[in-house]
Amino acid sequence: MDAAFTAEQDEIRRTLREILGKRCGPDEVKAAVRTAAGHDRELWQQLARQLGLPGIAVAEEYGGVGCTPADLALACEETGRVLLPSPLLATAALCVPLITALGAETQRSALLPPLAAGGLTAALAVSGPALATALALTGEDTAGHWSGGGRAGGVQARADASGDGWRLYGEVAQVLDGHSAALLLVAAHTGGFARSRTLLFLVREDAPGLVRTRQAVLDETRPQARIQLRDVPAELLGDEGDDVLGALAATGRTASAVLAAEAVGAAGQALARTVEYVRQREQFGRAIGSFQAVKHRLADLYVQVQAARSAAYYAAWDPDQGGLALAQALEALRLTAGEAIQLHGGIGFTWEHDAHLYFKRAAADELLFGPVHRLRAHAADRAGLFAAPAAVPAGSSGPVPVSAPAHGAAQGAGPAGGPSTTPPASPPAPEKVAV
């Protein structure tokens, strides 16, 4: 595998860093999140026109740039550096792959071109705080119980009496960019208890019975909304026989690589700003960055960030490793942002300073897509690291089970892992060597 960046990838990153450096400083970020949309609409359109950012991973036949998800991940490293508030994650990393994988040809032709052009934004609505579960980041629910499971809660779907459409009713909280997205992809439960299944539905912003309320959140750069569906007309995405849970899991693998790259960009920038600060801040007549204890702390952070960056780049080319990369990146961002607060002193967590923005992003992302230990546990389960060894039938030749070590007596271990009742064998006599 050639992991070197292409000239096109380097150019995208350079151009994106230049644009965001001019238009997305800390003051601009704080101003953008206070708007009704939660982001700078003019900047979003500029990124769509000049770089085709929303459609970077959309096929050219649907009006996209035709690049790969790896290119989207590399671009998101730059958006993570400045904590860009935008519909990019919800639209390009979550909804576009689902529409591409499940949508009928008419739906793809109607939706993907405006999504790729930035004129249409979308949001994925899954029941409750279950986004990480729905995307199979922290576990796999093959029955789709997170969507309601046929019981109270979640979102329920029923076919119209005419059989030509669907109706949705229920409530969804914590929908990323749900307050401003013109198109909602709603995961709903249908079929009752006997034929329980989860399907995805398209809901337009002007649908009757749809109520959207922007929520107060920890990280304002990731705006969220509460969606209420009161007998809302909806269009089924794809066909009733589609593997919706499989498509969500595949989307989760790609999204985890994108999120890992974004977190690495944020961690790298938080570290760079902290290093710049300790070079200027003086105490006892010298810069605090010259103290050995501070140097050691910054060196540890540098190792964490570089390890996370390597994992994120690897996951960009192999999305199956996205879960581990996301865990590494979220942990690096949390540690770096926490140390940034500490080394900046009391001002670090005030609204006047931008260090708190990175700290809140770290905490909010781990709440939404983690926690880290569950990401790692699920990756270990998928890899079969802790799977029980297969039993070997008596009298058959085969590998010795792990629970019964072949050299248990010599090692002082019994069959059950406890002390052996058999005395250890005497060591062999040394061999005589002629001199």
UniProtKB/TrEMBL annotation:
Q: Where is the composition biased (Pro residues)?
A: 421-435
Indicate, by first and last residue, each region the UniProt record lists as having compositional bias (Low complexity).
396-413
Q: Which Pfam families match?
A: Acyl-CoA_dh_1, Acyl-CoA_dh_N
* Record region (Disordered): 396-435
- What molecular functions are annotated in GO for this chain? oxidoreductase activity
The UniProt keywords, alphabetically, are: FAD, Flavoprotein, Oxidoreductase
Domain Acyl-CoA dehydrogenase/oxidase C-terminal residue range list: 258-382
Task: Tell me its EC number(s), please.
Answer: 1.-.-.-
Q: Which residues form the Acyl-CoA dehydrogenase/oxidase N-terminal domain?
A: 6-118
InterPro entries xref list: Acyl-CoA_Oxase/DH_mid-dom_sf, AcylCo_DH-like_C, AcylCo_DH/oxidase_C, AcylCoA_DH/ox_N, AcylCoA_DH/ox_N_sf, AcylCoA_DH/oxidase_NM_dom_sf
Q: Give the required cofactors.
A: FAD
The record's family statement is: Belongs to the acyl-CoA dehydrogenase family.
Q: What is the protein name given in its UniProt record?
A: Acyl-CoA dehydrogenase family protein
Query: What lineage does UniProt assign to this protein's organism?
Result: Bacteria, Bacillati, Actinomycetota, Actinomycetes, Kitasatosporales
